[in-house]
Structures are given as structure tokens and as C-alpha cells.
């Protein structure tokens, strides 16, 4: 069985403009594989093909790409999930391309940095061993802490495409909420204060592209909704 | 807070609340007007005029017009900051759109006054 691929190629040192390059891959009849395995096989054919990957099992978040128009992790997306026909692989949309499928994630990380993704606790005397949480308090972090920062969500969000310098984006906001509801964090008010402008949170119009692509099944829109209601309560 | 309504740098929460509050008024007005059109068959200008003769209807219409003005201001600011990146062009477009929205209210006010 022959599979055909069309892959985005761009090497700024040599190419004037990006182009799509076709590849074919010979596989056993009826065999399925992950997109990443196919990319690795294609790289054997053409060693100049560039992409990121590390864990190859959906844990590290480094191989976010756009496959047949939808963002996802190449390592956990089976070819069969993309339907028949030509498979089109492009870099994550909206971010500058470094080379081929490798994008420059600076804007994404800058937004992540902005939300102060670390525990702030101003207690004079830190506990001798650890900050304790009740099981209920800990349960509030479920569905938030699992994010692997793959950027599939933020790069599928139109609001992030148009204002990547001002809108924090779904991934950053998911993390912002993770610290806002952490019972051990004491900076809730400052955190909310940093988010109450017209762009950081409120550029989210609940389009839910982020939810539909998250490879970890997380729901940034819901977290953003919670932040909005925290901001409203704080303003009243 | 009120001065923010006219400000260039907008306040997120205030805009969010204003957009929704004005949307509700616009929706209520639209529904009411639909009801009026469905349930009455206007055969003369006098009948049509009578709908707007009460002070309540005048206030409601005026509230709807002002809501549209505020909704358009915030909504178009959001759309323009998404899609129009050159600041000068955006300012001009914003100015023109605000002017149109303001004229709606002004003209509406005169019409209501005349009824
Ligand atoms: S929320 Fe999901 S899609 Fe977004 S960065 Fe985290 S894991 Fe990736
Ligand atoms: S729900 Fe919000 S954050 Fe998610 S894709 Fe839509 S606008 Fe972006
Ligand atoms: S290679 Fe680590 S998530 Fe795909």
C-alpha cells in the first residue's frame, strides 16, 4: 500500500518562500502507524526534513503539528484517524517557522511566563515539610495540571493568531487558572489584577477551537470562563 | 469608570459586562418589535405611530438605540484590533464607525421626539 504525504517545507537559508513537497511511503497492506513514525520513515528518505520530537508517546509536547488541517501531536495521531487520501502536514499555524515543521515558540512561552506559572506563597514561616492540601482542594487541579504545553490549543485559536503579544491564549490561561484555584497560592488577587485588561483574558470569545484539539483532552475554555467569573466577582 | 466608556484603552470586565447587558436590551427590543409586526397588520401611518406614542415605548426605543451605540463601539473596537493592524487606519475606521453609530442615536432621538 502506498501512502502519499504533502509536507510543508521551508528552509529560510535557501528558500525564498515555503512550498509543499510530496512524498510517498510504502507500507504493508492494512498497517496503521502514528504520523510521527511516518515522518521518521520519510526522514530516512530525505534527511533534510526537519521536525521536533522527543518522547514519542504524548508526554513531552514537542511534536505538535497541523495534520490535515487540525493541530495535534504527531506521535499519538494514527494515520487511520486522518481518513484516507493524501496526508497534509504543516507546522502549527500562527507562529514563525524556523524550518519545515519547526516553529519558533517564543511568543507562546512569553505568554506562559506572564501568568507567573509557579506557586506564590507569602507565608512568613514556610511549613517545615510541605504545604498540605485536602483531597478536595487537590481535586480542583485535575484537568489543569496535565497540560504539557504543546501549543496545539493556542495555535488553533484565532484570538491568539491576531494578538499573540497581548492575548495570553488558552494554554497560558489554563495554567493561570491552575494557580488561581490552588489553595496553597496566596497571590490570587495580584494574579487577577494582571489579567483584567481588555486583551489578556477577554479576547477569548469561547470559540472552543482549543478544546477540540487538545491532545490531553483538557478544556481551556472552561478554565477561561472560571477566570472571567473570578474577575467579575472581584470587580463587584 | 464612566469615563472609560470613551477611553482608548479599554477595560476588559467593563466591556464584557456592557456587551452582554446591551445585547440583552437589543434582543428584548428585537423580540418586541417582531411581536408587534406579527400581531398587528398596519394599514395606516397613524396605527404605526400609535405604537411609539407612549412614553414607555419611547424610552425603550431610546434605550435600544443607545445600547446599539455602546455595543457597536466595543464590538467594532474588538474586531478592528483583531484585523486592522496599522494604528492610523484603525483610528480612522473607528472614528467613522463611531460617527455612524452616533448618528443612529441622534436621528433616532429626533424621530422619537417627532412622534
Ligand atoms: S491545554 Fe492541551 S493543547 Fe493546550 S498546551 Fe496544554 S496540552 Fe497542549
Ligand atoms: S475558546 Fe477562547 S481560547 Fe479557546 S480557541 Fe476559542 S477564543 Fe481561543
Ligand atoms: S514526541 Fe513527545 S509528545 Fe509527541
Describe what you observe in this structure.
Chain B: Membrane-anchoring subunit of succinate dehydrogenase (SDH). Chain B: Keywords: Cell inner membrane, Cell membrane, Electron transport, Heme, Iron, Membrane, Metal-binding, Transmembrane, Transmembrane helix, Transport, Tricarboxylic acid cycle. The complex is a heterodimer of chains A (236) and B (115). Chain A folds into 2 domains: 2-103, Beta-grasp domain (Ubiquitin-like (UB roll), Roll), CATH 3.10.20.30; 106-235, Alpha-helical ferredoxin (Fumarate Reductase Iron-sulfur Protein, Chain B, domain 2). Helices cover 30% and strands 14% of the residues of chain A. Chain A is built from 8 helices and 7 strands. In chain A, the strands form 2 sheets. In chain A, strands 2-1-5-3-4 form a 5-stranded mixed β-sheet, covered by helices on one side. In chain A, strands 6-7 form a two-stranded antiparallel ribbon. The model of chain A has no long low-confidence stretch (mean pLDDT 95). Chain B has a single domain (12-113), classed as 3 helical TM bundles of succinate and fumarate reductases, CATH 1.20.1300.10. Chain B has helices at residues 12-39, 45-51, 55-83, 87-114. In chain B, helix 1 (12-39) crosses helix 3 and helix 3 (55-83) runs antiparallel to helix 4 (87-114). The longest helix of chain B has 29 residues, at 55-83. Chain B starts with 11 loop residues before the first helix and ends with a helix. The complex binds iron/sulfur cluster (2 copies) and FE2/S2 (inorganic) cluster. One iron/sulfur cluster (SF4) binds at residues 147-153, 170-171, 174, 214, 216, 218, 220 of chain A.
Amino acid at each position: 500500500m502506498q501512502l502519499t504525504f504533502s509536507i510543508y517545507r521551508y528552509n529560510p537559508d535557501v528558500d525564498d518562500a515555503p512550498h509543499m513537497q510530496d512524498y510517498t511511503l510504502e507500507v504493508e497492506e492494512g498497517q496503521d502507524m502514528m504520523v510521527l513514525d511516518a515522518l521518521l520513515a520519510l526522514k530516512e528518505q530525505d534527511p533534510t526534513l526537519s521536525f521536533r520530537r522527543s518522547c514519542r508517546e504524548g508526554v513531552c509536547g514537542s511534536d505538535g503539528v497541523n495534520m490535515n488541517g487540525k493541530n495535534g501531536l504527531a506521535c499519538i495521531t494514527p494515520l487511520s484517524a486522518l481518513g484516507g487520501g493524501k496526508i497534509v502536514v504543516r507546522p502549527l499555524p500562527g507562529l514563525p517557522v524556523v524550518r519545515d515543521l519547526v516553529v519558533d515558540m517564543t511568543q507562546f512561552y512569553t505568554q506562559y511566563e506572564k501568568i507567573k506559572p509557579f506557586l506564590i506563597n507569602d507565608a512568613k514561616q514556610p511549613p517545615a515539610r510541605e504545604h498540605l492540601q485536602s483531597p478536595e482542594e487537590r481535586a480542583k487541579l485535575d484537568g489543569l495540571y496535565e497540560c504539557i504545553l504543546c501549543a496545539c490549543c493556542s495555535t488553533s485559536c484565532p484570538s491568539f493568531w491576531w494578538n499573540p503579544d497581548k492575548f495570553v491564549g488558552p494554554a497560558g490561561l489554563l495554567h493561570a487558572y491552575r494557580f488561581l484555584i490552588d489553595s496553597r497560592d496566596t497571590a490570587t488577587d495580584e494574579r487577577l489584577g494582571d489579567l483584567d485588561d481588555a486583551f489578556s483574558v477577554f479576547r477569548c470569545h469561547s470559540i472552543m477551537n482549543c478544546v477540540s484539539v487538545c491532545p490531553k483532552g483538557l478544556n481551556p475554555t472552561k478554565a477561561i470562563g472560571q477566570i472571567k467569573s473570578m474577575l467579575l466577582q472581584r470587580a463587584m | 469608570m464612566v469615563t472609560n466608556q470613551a477611553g482608548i484603552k479599554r477595560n476588559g470586565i467593563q466591556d464584557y459586562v456592557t456587551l452582554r447587558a446591551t445585547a440583552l436590551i437589543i434582543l428584548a427590543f428585537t423580540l418586541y418589535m417582531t411581536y408587534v409586526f406579527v400581531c398587528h397588520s398596519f394599514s395606516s401611518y397613524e396605527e404605526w405611530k400609535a405604537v411609539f406614542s407612549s412614553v414607555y415605548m419611547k424610552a425603550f426605543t431610546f434605550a435600544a438605540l443607545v445600547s446599539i451605540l455602546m455595543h457597536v463601539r466595543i464590538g467594532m473596537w474588538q474586531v478592528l484590533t483583531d484585523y486592522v493592524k496599522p494604528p492610523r487606519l484603525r483610528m480612522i475606521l473607528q472614528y467613522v464607525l463611531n460617527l455612524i453609530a452616533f448618528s443612529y442615536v441622534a436621528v433616532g432621538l429626533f424621530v422619537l421626539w417627532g412622534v
